[in-house]
């Protein structure tokens, strides 16, 4: 049950990350890379030595949740900045 949730959350994170990297440009794309690098580092560290991590699923759940929340916050900030630019230009 927990692993299904972790897997679904990870897939959702990957889909959001791919969307952000394909559609965003400039600074926003670089900012979207931050959670991908962090999650990749953490999951890579776990893959190298899984015996060191007793709560493997919980750690993956927490990091993927935080990364997805960061992407959501970044999208909201981006939306706000672009709306402000449109108001000034129009």
What's the short version?
This protein has one domain (2-89).
In the predicted model, the low-confidence regions spanning at least 5 consecutive residues are: none
Q: Helices and strands: which structural class?
A: mainly alpha
- Biggest sheet, in brief? none
Percent of sequence in beta strands: under 5%
Backbone CA Rg:
16 Å
Q: What is the terminal-to-terminal distance?
A: 50 Å
Helical stretch tally: 3
Helix percentage range: over 70%
User: What is the residue-averaged pLDDT?
Assistant: 90
Order of helices and strands: HHH
Number of domains: 1
Number of strands: 0
Query: Which word captures the global form?
Result: elongated
Notes on the protein architecture:
By secondary structure, this protein is mainly alpha-helical. It has one domain (2-89). Helices cover 87% and strands 0% of the residues. It is elongated.
List the SSEs and their pairings.
Layout: H1 2-23, H2 27-48, H3 56-89
List the defining traits of the structure above.
elongated, mainly alpha, 90 residues, 3 helices
């Amino acid at each position: 049950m927990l692993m299904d949730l972790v897997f679904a959350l990870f897939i959702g994170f990957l889909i959001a990350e791919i969307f952000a990297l394909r559609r965003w440009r400039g600074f926003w794309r670089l900012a979207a890379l931050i959670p991908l690098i962090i999650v990749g580092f953490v999951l890579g560290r776990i893959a190298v030595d899984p015996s060191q991590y007793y709560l493997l699923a919980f750690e993956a759940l927490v990091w993927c949740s935080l990364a997805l929340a960061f992407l959501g916050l970044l999208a909201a900030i981006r939306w706000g900045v672009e709306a402000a630019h449109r108001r000034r230009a129009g």
